[in-house]
């Protein structure tokens, strides 16, 4: 994760990853902190992780994007390297209003990475380009 997230959020995600790698106790306290830092997007993000809704899409060149099947059934493309999601909530709550650090989809990406719950999909360069371009066509 890049350092564009506040340090406290970065540290919490690292602790969650460590807790799941070690299968240690104390996960409940981490989830309370998660809800405190990320607010109302924390519980829906955890639901998305539980439903295995996050897929890491990689191409042979190493380009990576994430697709998250939202609770509405729509597929959103997320970019963890720049903390961006194509969902309307990201544009409104994160970019316009600055009410949240992340939308539930991006948070689900980070949590699925930390918990080892991310699905993997390898695609060709052309397929990845189509995925990325299809998202832009939906908006226009």
Automatic annotation (TrEMBL):
The keyword Zinc applies. It holds the Pfam family SWIM. It comes from Crotophaga sulcirostris (Groove-billed ani). Keywords: Metal-binding, Zinc, Zinc-finger. One of its GO terms (molecular function) is zinc ion binding. It comes from the Eukaryota. Residues 76-114 form the SWIM-type domain. GO terms for biological process: double-strand break repair via homologous recombination. InterPro entries: Znf_SWIM (IPR007527). This is ZSWM7 protein. One of its GO terms (cellular component) is Shu complex.
């Amino acid at each position: 994760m890049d350092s564009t997230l506040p340090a406290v959020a970065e540290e919490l995600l690292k602790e969650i990853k460590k807790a799941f790698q070690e299968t240690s106790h104390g996960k409940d306290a981490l989830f309370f902190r998660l809800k405190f830092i990320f607010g109302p997007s924390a519980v829906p993000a955890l639901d998305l992780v539980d439903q295995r809704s996050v897929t890491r899409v990689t191409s042979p060149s190493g380009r990576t994007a994430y697709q998250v099947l939202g609770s509405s059934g729509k597929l959103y493309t997320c970019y963890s390297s720049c903390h961006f999601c194509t969902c309307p909530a990201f544009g409104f709550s994160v970019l316009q209003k600055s009410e949240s650090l992340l939308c539930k989809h991006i948070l689900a990406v980070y949590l699925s990475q930390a918990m080892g719950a991310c699905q993997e999909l390898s695609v060709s360069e052309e397929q990845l380009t189509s995925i990325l371009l299809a998202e832009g066509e939906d908006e226009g």
